[in-house]
Design a protein that fits this description.
single chain; 12 strands; alpha/beta; Isopropylmalate Dehydrogenase; about 40% helix
Length: about 325
């Protein structure tokens, strides 16, 4: 069965999205995965483009030109200069991509980075991509953010809050809920029949029997027990300072981390240019580069497309696993 093309959103038009999109197409045009861009063709001057009207036309055009499903901006985009007038088009690209994926016309959605401040100024009510995608393609469970690179997958249970708030807001229920979503996603989207999870401790040495804080005894350990009671292979709470060594990483498929940097530092240290942001718990496949809009270098030809290429390839693999599971 021929894989469905992936829908790639344009993201912030003043950022590096346009240049990494062209670079990614050049890198994968021969072997795939096939994708089409939803965005303004004016963002890609001088690039070989094939304007399409529907996703089904992408595969034939892809080897020779980047397929673009046109979506016009309200104002010309200038690299590095934000313009709130273009926010509605950025949002519309995401909505269209999700609609194609939900209708079975795209294998998944890959999103170029957005500038949240611009969208917020234009009235966008969501904190970011993840929450918006949860509204558009949710499954009744909170969407979960996974960061992945070769050899490591991590999920931060608390995300964009201060360390003080992360400790205050961490709950047993949140760890359990995300653990269940992760285990199911590893089976469905990554083809791992018996997922192995580990849970990092919140405190140094996972609290060292309560001498460095009781959160790991009173919050984290009960979550591990609850996940284990539901048949999930899980260990923890484990000291985070030894959880990401090569020997340790070989023993699990995903690590649940208690706060943002505990999860993102090891991924970005291992593979800064190839990390992928994956949204779990959706009815569709969604990945994204693990970086922002990089306004400071936009338009200068300095942007590395590695993370976008990795996101495209991971989305294609996830879509394949879902299709195989559905066929079985």
């Amino acid at each position: 069965m021929t894989p469905l093309p992936l829908a790639l959103t344009m993201g912030e038009p003043a950022g590096i999205g346009p240049e990494i999109t062209i670079a990614a197409w050049r890198a994968v045009r021969a072997a795939g995965p096939v994708f089409f861009l939803i965005g303004d063709p004016a963002l890609l001057p001088g690039a070989p483009l094939a304007l399409i009207e529907r996703p089904e036309q992408a595969a034939d055009a892809f080897p020779e030109a980047l397929p673009v499903l046109p979506l016009s901006l309200a104002a010309p985009a200038v690299p590095g200069r934000l313009d709130p007038r273009n926010a509605p088009a950025v949002i519309a690209a995401i909505e269209q991509a999700v609609a194609f994926a939900r209708a079975g016309r795209a294998g998944g959605v890959v999103t170029n980075p957005i500038q949240k401040s611009v969208l917020t100024a234009a009235g966008f009510p969501h904190p970011g991509h993840t929450e918006f995608l949860g509204e558009l393609a949710g499954t009744g469970v909170p969407p979960v953010m996974m960061l992945a690179c070769p050899g490591l997958r991590v999920v931060p249970v608390t995300i964009h809050v201060s360390l003080k708030r992360a400790a205050a807001e961490l709950t047993t229920a949140a760890i359990v809920t995300q653990g269940l979503v992760v285990a199911e996603a590893l089976r469905r989207d990554f083809g791992i029949a018996a997922p192995r999870l580990v849970v990092a401790g919140l405190n140094p040495h996972a609290g060292e029997d309560g001498t460095m804080g009781r959160e790991d005894i009173e919050i984290v350990a009960p979550a591990v027990a609850a996940l284990r009671a539901q048949g999930i292979a899980v260990r923890g709470p484990l000291p985070a300072d030894t959880l990401f060594t090569p020997r340790a990483r070989a023993t699990y498929d995903c690590a649940l981390c208690m706060y943002h940097d505990q999860a993102l530092i090891p991924v970005k240290t291992l593979d800064m240019d190839g990390g992928v942001n994956v949204t779990l718990g959706l009815s569709i496949v969604r990945t994204s580069p693990d970086h922002g809009t990089a306004l400071d270098i936009a338009g200068n030809g300095l942007a590395d497309p590695g993370s976008l290429i990795a996101a495209l390839r991971m989305a294609a693999d996830m879509a394949r696993h879902r299709a195989e599971g559905a066929a079985a």
